[in-house]
Design goal:
17 helices; elongated; alpha/beta; single chain; 62% helix
């Protein structure tokens, strides 16, 4: 009874997939410090994250990385070998690392029981990751297998100017449409200046226009027009004020992160599943077409063989009938097949090789004689 009850016990539910957090941002915005703050916060809650460093040019990491691109690709060696500058070296290093990203995916899958979050720190040159082929490969590989969220880290202290603020928002909008993933704007360095002014600019169009009226440059007119375009972008944008140095604002960040994961499951995962299904159907259709061409080619070969050999029943069959008839043996054939264990295969092969070679030589002599007669 106890054994039966133990056998009937349900299997444990599989662990949920980890959430991949892609941290992007301008150089000097505090991405690496923010990743350090996130890792320390999660370790303090006994929920250690799986951290990946994708910046090959960083000198010192302030946090322990489970996977470090510097262990695989030597940034300075890439620059020397290919004669590249700093940015070209970073792009090439990322391209080389992307060729082995399938191994990184396997490591993440193995650790999904132990880590609830996967944090990816990207290079300081944001355009290297967002607009390169390797960045697209890495982002799509993660998003197709795990819930993925893009976190755009913004330097609040350098965005007090409305024109600079608009430039940051335009870049954030371009990344959103480039990655097509749930998006969170982290306004970092709130220990220097509070981010409430930026939130007010995003929520109140008139307040932002008043701030622009103090600017006299021609760019202010363009910024005024662009603010109208970004109004819809602001309405669905998740914004969090954080100080990576003091560690404030992280609770609100994880609340917004959970909402972004729900958004991924509700809107983005069905789209990725649809794209994957479309790709599988296209590949299956291509396989069927190739198989049909193969059958046609094999059928034409069999027909040609039947016309040359005369009334030969086996060669007149199509390829499918030929395979089926060869697969079904009669009783006498089965007895002959079963009695072949005592045959010396080396002797039989040698006995067939000599007459075959003799026939081949005779055919060659006859061909040579025909050519010589034709030439005469």
């Amino acid at each position: 009874m106890a054994a039966a009850a133990g056998a009937a016990a349900p299997a444990p539910a599989p662990a949920p997939a980890p959430v991949c957090v892609l941290v992007l941002g301008m150089a000097g915005s505090g991405k690496t410090t923010f990743v350090q703050c996130l890792a320390a916060h999660l370790h303090g809650q006994r929920c250690p994250p799986y951290v990946i460093n994708l910046d090959p040019a960083v000198h010192n990491l302030p946090f322990p990385a489970n996977i470090d691109i510097r262990d695989t690709v030597k940034y300075k060696e890439v620059m020397k070998q290919y004669g590249l500058g700093p940015n070209g070296g970073i792009v090439t290093s990322l391209n080389l690392f992307a060729t082995r990203f399938d191994q990184v995916m396997k490591f993440i899958e193995k650790r999904q029981n132990a880590s609830k979050y996967v944090i990816i720190d990207t290079p300081g040159q944001i355009e290297v990751f967002t607009w390169s082929a390797s960045g697209t490969i890495i982002t799509e590989a993660l998003a197709s297998s795990f819930p993925s969220v893009v976190v755009y880290v913004m330097d609040t202290s350098r965005s007090t100017n409305p024109i600079t603020f608009m430039s940051n928002m335009l870049y954030a909008c371009s990344i959103l449409y480039r990655t097509k993933l749930p998006f969170i704007v982290v306004m970092n360095k709130t220990d220097i200046i509070d981010h409430s002014f930026a939130v007010e600019w995003m929520q109140d169009f008139e307040t932002f226009q008043d701030a622009l009226n103090q600017e006299t440059s021609y760019v202010s007119n363009l910024t005024r027009s662009m603010s109208l375009v970004l109004d819809e972008f602001y309405s669905s944008l998740k914004v969090v004020g954080v100080s990576a140095v003091l560690g404030t604002g992280l609770d609100e960040f994880f609340i917004q992160l959970s909402k972004a994961v729900d958004e991924y499951e509700r809107e983005y995962r069905p789209e990725y599943e649809r794209l994957r299904k479309t790709l599988e159907e296209a590949q299956e259709k291509q396989k069927r077409e190739q198989l049909e061409h193969l059958w046609k080619d094999m059928g034409s070969v069999c027909v040609q063989g039947s016309t040359l050999a005369g009334a030969d029943d086996a060669s007149a069959m199509g390829p499918s009938e030929l395979i089926l008839t060869r697969g079904t043996l009669s009783e006498e054939e089965e007895e002959r097949e079963s009695d072949t264990d005592d045959i010396d295969h080396e002797v039989t092969e040698e006995s067939h090789e000599e007459p075959a070679f003799r026939n081949f030589m005779q055919d060659m002599r006859m061909k040579c004689q025909r050519k010589s007669n034709l030439n005469e």
